[in-house]
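Hello again,

I reread your note about wanting to compare the complex against the isolated chains. To keep things tidy I'm splitting this into two emails, and this first one only covers the full assembly. Below are the input lines as submitted, including protein chains and any nucleic acid or small-molecule components. They are followed by the predicted structure of everything together. The single-chain runs will come separately.
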Amino acid sequence: MREHVAALELLGCATVRVRRPEELAACDALVLPGGESTTMARLAHTFGLLEPLRAAVAGGLPTLGTCAGMILLAERVLDGVEGQETIGGIDMTVRRNAFGRQVASFEGPVTMSGLDEPVHGVFIRAPWVEEVGPGVEVLARVDHGEAAGRIVAVREGHLMATSFHPEVGGDSRVHQLFVDLVRPRSRVE
Amino acid sequence: MTQTPQQPATDQPTTGTDRVKRGMAEMLKGGVIMDVVTAEQARIAEDAGAVAVMALERVPADIRAQGGVSRASDPDMIDSIIDSVSIPVMAKARIGHFVEAQVLQSLGVDYVDESEVLTPADYANHIDKWQFDVPFVCGATNLGEALRRITEGAAMIRSKGEAGTGDVSNAVTHMRTILGEIRRLSALSKDELYVAAKELQAPYDLVAEVAERGSLPVVLFTAGGIATPADAAMMMQLGADGVFVGSGIFKSGNPAQRAEAIVKATTFHDDPAMVAKVSRGLGEAMVGLNVDEIPAPHRLSERGW
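Full-complex prediction:
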């Protein structure tokens, strides 16, 4: 989360931590960071944040989900826990821990549409996108190895999601793509 | 800016880098990691909102009560816990026992805790953790100890506390010591850092990095003696990035409810009304043991150096 804040502040955005519905209401855009998707969804549910999040995302709040945040934006989750809830919004099926356990976590270049040079993707117990609906734009796929071709970044309207952590490593270009989505919708410039 | 993590030299995907090891711990920040000894306990922990579980054969309170040599867990037991939950699974290896760590890595454990709770296997050397793809967490009672573990390749630090007691006082002492020493470093002038490095018995570059950033280059959790939601919230307010709870949950009267309460208190650690709310009606906390009453040779936090 600290790195997301750093990347966004570098781009001139003000940031707040959202743990309560009233904090959410004050935002022009939202980042759902990495973490444990099961824990995040459970806490959001327990503290009455899940429904406001669903309403806000469905109502057009620009949202970037990274890693666990990608899972939260998925309409459908594979390999989740029983009854795992999501916020939804992107018409996609995401497979949790798709690349394997921590020893299989990796970093490497990711070619992303809209960017000239590859971004450096850090994949930590990362999910991938198993399939997307017709309205979803695929922004990146895995280049190399066994998982080559798997979808790891997507956009649907005001929502964007990556399997990897674009916030790690001081490159804010993915955040820039997201901010470009937000700016036209922002209440204040 | 961290100095230690290096960009992989190749364009090919690379596993086991500092960034993925340290980044894994970053993803656990703000969360609770719970000791579990069975698959059923692991499921209770996951349902309660734990961000990871620590698989071990006996919780520290039982290790303390039963005595004897305490070792890494049976692979069957670790497998059964890995199979039963989808959150990360950590497991403990003895200090210096690099083969136990190799075994845990081969089982697919997500993090290895080189832990003073088990009986040390080597009283001189810790494990050379750079040799592994699996990341390590290590305990520390002060900044010098934390930096020596990071030098050996630890990707996450936890303050030691005194495991298996339900007495939070040592966790407080260790967390205050580590963070206080970091604050002191940050106030030193550049030419004073050489002596500071000597006193901390840690490499100068790492000491200078900590002084500049005002924090460790890895995540700092707390552990040892946390038994109540208020204990967890206090450790978070003191500056911990997250909480390990060992015996405190499954040695209490109502583990599922206490586990959930500790998770909530950790998340809302700065909201006393919330901590009060989740602290209601939890039943018996684990039976406590005052650290002062434990003879010094039996204090686990004094293992490791």
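For quick reference: The mean pLDDT of chain A is 92.

B.
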